[in-house]
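Problem 12. The chain below contains 460 residues. Write out its predicted structure in token notation.
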Amino acid sequence: MTVHFQEVVPVDTYSVQSKGVLNEVDQNVLTLLYQPLIGAFAHSLYLTLWCEAKMNHQSKKHQHLMNITQFSLKDILSGRKKLEAIGLLKTLKKDGESSREYIYELQLPLSPKAFFTDGFLSIYLFNRLGQTKFNEIRESFLIPQADSSGFTEVTASFSDVFTSLHPSEMTSKSYSEINENVVSENVSFLEKGVQGKVTFGETDFDFEAMVNQISTFVVPKEVITPKLKESIYKLAYIYQLEPMDMSRQIQNVYYSTGEINVENLRREIQKWYRFEHEEGLPVLALRTQPVHLKALQGMEPKSQEEELIKYFEEVSPFRLLEDYSGTTPSEVDLKLVAYCMLDQNLTPGVTNVLLDYVLSGNDMKLAKGLIERIASHWARKKVQTVPEAMALARDEKRKSKEWQEKKTSKPKFYNGNQKPNVSVPDWLKPETNPAKEDENSSTNEDENRKWLESLLNNSK
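Solution.
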């Protein structure tokens, strides 16, 4: 492990440079979004370097930085590396005979939109702050947009306001003066700046091994674009995926959607991770209805229906399946629970109603196709509470009963499974004695008909 004085000592010099300026939004992003990730000192170090970049560009010793921040060189180096890792700082070094010289290039923070849609930094911020605080901070960066429906744009164009130049004013001398190189090589124009971004060492993930695991029959090679490659490195780092796991996720996405981009790959990996790790089958199925979605929270049931609502709200899908079978639910059944709660985003209480509805009406069997059809329907209806789910279940049952009644009321036709009602041909009838015809006719006709039906059935 490298100790700090092997990288920098107080007599090493540094200079700070930047190509942009911090506006008010940038400062809010730094304080509210970056500071929870890098800590107060790294945040303070960044602002200190910005002040030095604005004041002068002369080289200073790191001893000066220690005096300004009142922190040790070890802490300064630690804060500097955090800024580098988060994409706010680039560091250049030149070794001299007796000391080293550093150039610190400050990078602008991401815009609020870029930060929250990055899918990388936002995940770390969510885990650091929790859902409530994360949502609160995110909403503080939202700007309400006025409804422009019914309005017509009346913005003036350049030609509406300014007149064109006379040909005499557009001389070659003017062009030469404008294009004259008045900027020396060691300076540059002040710009808004390029936003910093997080980079990864490609050696951390064996990209070639992942590509070799992907079947070209499933995913064409040209699908893996440079932008997607960069995201693959990030996602592999966040979710600790091995090349084999990542190749499987890429093939799953492309096979199911026919295309692959950063967003649908991220969704697939997030679903896989939740399923395999923090929210695996048993853990996910042990969840109960959220308190804010309980219709009878803190209330005593006053009817049989309310008792049933209370039951669905208080037990987990795992417990409900246990109550039905008296044994531990099978992995197949738990995967159906995971489908309802992960893929269709149904709440535990609504999932309980769905399971009960299918089990009670399907001879205690969880039919996969029926579960998926109803779950997707309820998801589209945005069902979240147990009473809403029970109302839909009653409606499903009523429609099913009406359909069955219509089906049974229709005239029956031969459908291939029913036995045909045919008379026995004369040539199959045995010869009979007229004297015994009346006595045996009924018996023989029944036996012949049975034999013919058996013959017909066996020949199918």
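Discussion. Residues 336 and 368 are 7 Å apart (CA to CA). Students who got a different answer should revisit the alignment rule from Section 12.3.
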